[in-house]
Amino acid sequence: MKRRRKTTREALGFERLVRRALDALPPEIERLMDNVAVVVEDEPEPALLAELELPPTETLFGFYQGVPQTERSSAYGMVLPDRVIIYQRPLEEACSSYSELAYEIRRTIVHEVAHHFGLDDATLTRLGWD
Fold first, then answer.
1. What 8-state DSSP symbol labels residue 35?
2. Percent of the chain scoring above 90 in pLDDT
3. Which residues pair with 37 in a beta bridge?
4. How does residue 9 score in pLDDT terms, banded at 50, 70 and 90?
5. Which domain range does residue 74 map to?
6. Cα separations (Å) of 69 from 15, 57, 109?
7. CB–CB of 83/68 below 8 Å?
8. Phi/psi zone of residue 120: left (φ > 0), alpha (ψ -120 to 50 degrees), beta?
9. What gap in Å lies between CA 125 and CA 17, rounded to an integer?
């Protein structure tokens, strides 16, 4: 897991929750994520929010950046790792307790990892992971 900001005690606590959520993934899933970097950033870039056309009432907790497994051909290779980005500030601001934060981090990681395996937002909503 990489971080794009100065490390503080609070940041380390957040990263610990992210690590726990990743460690809780089934081993079969973990093995299929060998070329996926999980990164913690403070908040999404304004350009990304504009590109996604998110309404002001929605908050972005995470983002999958890459080519989903279902869209790869036999020629796919020699590429930079896909990325799952977890946004610390929006998650912390939305959660009122440590346990709620841990739950939302886990939920966000599962959601973004699902995108890596080709599940779209409509499918995730049907499954209750929106």
1. T
2. 52
3. 83
4. low
5. 2-126
6. 26, 31, 17
7. no
8. beta
9. 24
Q: What is the DSSP letter of 80?
A: P
User: pTM for the complete prediction?
Assistant: 0.83
For residue 85, which phi and psi values (nearest 5 degrees)?
A: -105, 130
CA distances from 5 to 18, 25, 103, 106, 107 (A): 15, 26, 23, 21, 23
Question: How far, in Å, are 15, 106, 127 from residue 82 at the CA level?
Answer: 19, 19, 24
The CATH number assigned to the domain holding 45 equals 3.30.2010.20
Report the C-alpha gap between 130 and 125 in whole angstroms.
Answer: 4
Please give the Cα distance from 64 to 83 (Å, whole number): 6
Mapped onto helix, strand or coil, the DSSP state of residue 2 is strand
φ, ψ for residue 48, nearest 5 deg: -65, -45
For 120, the token pair is 């779209």
Q: The tokens of 15 are what?
A: 């990263």
Q: What is the pLDDT of residues 22-48, one digit of tens each?
A: 999 988 888 888 889 999 999 999 999
Count of domains forming the chain: 1
